[in-house]
Amino acid sequence: MLTVLAAGPLTTVQDLGRSGFAAIGVPRSGAADAASAGLANRLVGNDPAAAVLEGTAGGLRVRAERTVLVAVTGAPAPVTVDGRAAPFDAPLTLAPGAVLALGVPPVGLRTYLAVRGGIDVPPVLGSRSTDTLSGLGPAPLAPGDRLPVGVLHGEEPFVDVAPVRPLSSGPVLRVLPGPRREWLDPEAWTALTTQEWTVTADSNRVGLRLAGPQLTRARQDELPSEGLVPGALQVPPDGAPVLFLADHPVTGGYPVLAVVTTADLPAAAQLRPGDSLSFRSLP
Question: In CATH, what number is assigned to the domain containing residue 244?
């Protein structure tokens, strides 16, 4: 059992998400930075489906009510246990009553806390993920919440620390042409893949709103709503693209100019307002 003492700006429970329900309007959701969440689970010997905590911009504090094995990954927030510095990207044992706290990461946005056995909140449609768009799953954490620990683990882990490449506040994301590239002027693709973009404050787990050159449309008629995927770069009428993340809607009515590769979505999920990014077209 973990008791939440402070939840920071936003802390949610996340796992692999709700796959297979897009046809009835249910987004997949799940960890925004799936690579970091998966690493946290591996470090404590969990099943990949085990739920973790996704903290945003630090501030999370939890108390262990029994001895538990945990790991912290993702945005490199300073970790302390009872006020003393503790390791990052490594397994860590918390004694009963120990308080783990996350500071504000100097780079990146989302930090993941895994506990051996997984966070055992009730699943909704097969997932324990909090979906901030639809409202499915557990509510964002609040002080006083008590989180049961489950049994979704395997053998004891045999690793002391994981080597992880440092996060970048200005990554280059690889893109493929989207299904509606022809709805934008030809210059729009050049602008997208040669100019620098900035993440605006109007961004969240649903998507990143980007500031940069205006992407103008070649067609002004209406596009019927069609399916969306994580990584889709949709261009609304104002010409400022939106890069959809984990909690994206399942359909949209604006043209999708490009799609970010799945491998680069974890880097996108770690961007915070004010960060810069650029896009590189794949051959």
Answer: 2.40.100.10
